[in-house]
Amino acid sequence: MHDGKKNVKPVVARIWRGRVAADRADEYADYLYEHGIRPLEEKALGVQLFREDREADSEFITISYWESIEAMSRFAGDDPTRIHHLPRDPEFLIELPKTVQILAITASSGRTGWG
Fold first, then answer.
1. DSSP labels for 93-108?
2. Per-residue pLDDT reduced to its tens digit, 59-99
3. Which residue of 33, 44, 74, 100 is most buried, as measured by CB atoms within 10 A?
4. What are the b/e assignments for 52-74, b being 16+ CB within 10 Å?
């Protein structure tokens, strides 16, 4: 979380999903963290990476938290739902996602730091 934004609460979440063949999941996890998550750590209020391993594939979900759509757009461009694929995504992903999901945060509690 940004030092200057510790007291800023997120109002929107940007959710990206992608699936990778099971035998490439560990390699993609490392790649995604270095090239996808680290840049978000610099710009977003917070970011989480989730992984579900299944028999044939693994699904990765990235959720980044933002103080406004405008702040998100400064990172993602004029259309914050537009995907910015990482250079090696076509090599790893079973299919390239076309959009991300943007949700308003209407309640938060627990140990997220925002409750």
1. BSS---B-EEEE----
2. 999 999 999 999 998 887 888 888 889 999 999 999 999 99
3. 44
4. eeeeebbebebbbbbbeeebbee
pLDDT at 112 over 80: no
Question: Within 13 Å, how many C-alpha atoms sit on residue 102's CB side?
Answer: 18
**What count of other Cβ atoms lies within 10 Å of the Cβ of residue 8?**
16
Long-range CB contacts for residues 90-95, cutoff 8 Å, separation at least 24: 92/18, 92/20, 92/24, 92/27, 92/28, 92/31, 93/18, 93/19, 93/20, 93/28, 94/19, 94/20, 94/21, 94/57, 95/19
DSSP H helices, the chain, are 25-32, 38-43, 69-76, 89-92
- Which CATH number is 6-104 given? 3.30.70.100
Backbone angles phi, psi at 79, to 5 degrees: -110, 100
